[in-house]
Amino acid sequence: MLQPPRRNSDQPKTAVIGGGIIGLSIAWRLAQCGADVTVFDSGATGHGATHAAAGMLAACAEAEPGEERLIALCREGQARWPAFAAELEEASRLSVDLRREGTLVLAPTADEQARLKHQLEFQHSLDLPVEWISTAELRRREPHVANIAGAVFSPEDHQVDNRKVATALRAAAEAAGAVIREHTPVQEIAIAGGRVSHLVLDDGSRFAADAIVLAAGAWSRSIAGLPAEARVPVRPVKGQMICLQMNAAQPLLNHVVWAPGVYLVPRRDGRLLVGATVEEKGFDTSLTAGGILALLEAAWRVIPAIEELPVAEMWVGHRPGSRDDAPIIGPSLIEGLIYATGHHRNGVLLAPLTADVVARCVLDGTLDPIVRPFGLDRFAAAKAA
Ligand code: GLY
Prior knowledge:
The protein is α/β, with parallel strands linked by helices. 31% of the residues lie in helices and 24% in strands.
């Protein structure tokens, strides 16, 4: 049994609001340093966007013009994953299934091929490791892909099993001494004299804290107590997903595959995730015929053999989207309140980096320059400009 480190009473008593991959990673890092840290989740840990995600660690294949700063952040986040996964597996003694086959982006039509080649030029201008591969090379890598003109191979865009990561993070955080309080919604962040004072919980009780990390994903805006200028502009971005069951011994796919309107993520146990819709429907949780039809049709166009696969599961998740769809990380106008939210499509990818940066910020007040462009103040500056 792992022994938790001794708590260091000089370090701030910290409350983390949100027990998803971001909140749990931060709590783990803080607890490793001996901090007194408690995570609050309104439900079970890891059951929001973390449960719904596909676990793609994609910083290159999706890179588009206009996102240069975010791409730099995502590349740094990606670089931290192998060591993070190894450390997490050792600390939790649980596997997180980091797979390194890379990602293929398919171009089924001439239009799509032209668009992809244009995007490739941009990606090469940023020195991203992506390459055009021939039909023959594509077939060699993935024989079940339909007849397709060409594809981009992104060798550093890996995947991890996000649900396993959440389970491992919880175990590692608890083993390091973090306290996890599930089914404990936070009603309010109380402020006194310009700094955080305590949380008010659902049952009216108080939890005093020197530092509060807001990591409640798509729910980050709904916690009372903050003045308007300290509230984060985060909204839920609905995604529907479907999981098909392949034969694990003879999977139809081994790489993560992107094609127009869909991505496919094969897991070691034979599950094949097919995602995801991107919908502005608030916290709507319905699976719709149109959503599932669109995903399956797009997937079937590129991998026709999926039509024989049984459906294992379908679900809906809510990504935390900010106004510019980039994360909000770092200190706030309120002393002791630190943001770690708004990660939109990149929550799994950016969890290790966010955890390192936010833990440092809590413990010694320093902010890694890599997240400076991702403060809440950027929205006020954009409004003033
Ligand atoms: N990162 C994948 C998604 O948001 O659907």
